Amino acid sequence: MAIMSESIPAVLNLWKKALGSVPDSVWEQTELEALILADNGLTKASDQLGNLNRLRMLDLGHNKLTQLPESLGDIAGLSDFLYLHDNRLSSLPSSIGQLKKLRYLNLSENTFSSFPESICALPSLIELRITDNQLATLPHCISNLPHLRELHLRNNKLTTLPDSIGMLPELRQLDLRGNPLTSLLDKLDLRWVNSLKSPSWIKDLEARGCAVYR
After folding, report:
1. Confidence class for position 213, pLDDT limits 50, 70, 90
2. 6: pLDDT confidence band, cut at 50, 70 and 90?
3. Which of 19, 82, 164, 175 would staple 140 via disulfide (CB 3.0–4.6 Å)?
């Protein structure tokens, strides 16, 4: 572990060390603000993960995880990044909804067949990546993400989108490549959004039968 100056967060970088499992000594380093455990062949994440309650960034990507401990929600300060991509996850612990400061979440390249609704409880989320999964639908609660700017859904099984997508006031990028879409929005609700100049494509949506409220 490299000891950083006071102005730089304490970081433990164990990327691609062929660990197989995480040494218990890692969970004792409660001063850590960033922990990188990517590409280590991990099949399990310890319940002790929650001990690292000063973490701002956690990278568990490129492993073989099938589940995560409920203690993940104890890392209440996790704010910058949570990388869980390229694992074997099909669900998330409900406690992830306790990560109220989290701004970036990457769940790409897993085995999700349904969207984890606990994500809808993350009010600070700015970017969500859940590409290359098996999602067939999105929940209406996705509208509960008021700061979401980027939503990456490439290579899933979506045929349509919920009307609530149109209620995301900050959304700037929506990636739907590789989905078998048969329709897009039926309703776009822009009422009480006074900061947006009406874009030209609004008329195109209306021409295709989308009801636009403004």
Report:
1. confident
2. very low
3. 164
Q: How confident is the model at residue 4 (pLDDT cuts 50, 70, 90)?
A: very low
Mean pLDDT of the chain: 89
Any residues with CB less than 8 A from the CB of 101 and at least 6 apart, and which?
A: 76, 77, 78, 79, 124
CB atoms within 10 A of CB 51: 18
Collapse the DSSP code of 212 into the 3-class scheme (helix H, G, I; strand E, B; otherwise coil) and give the result.
strand
Token output for 27: 């969970």
Query: Identity (one letter) of the amino acid at 153?
Result: L
Contact yes or no for 116/139 (Cβ under 8 A):
no
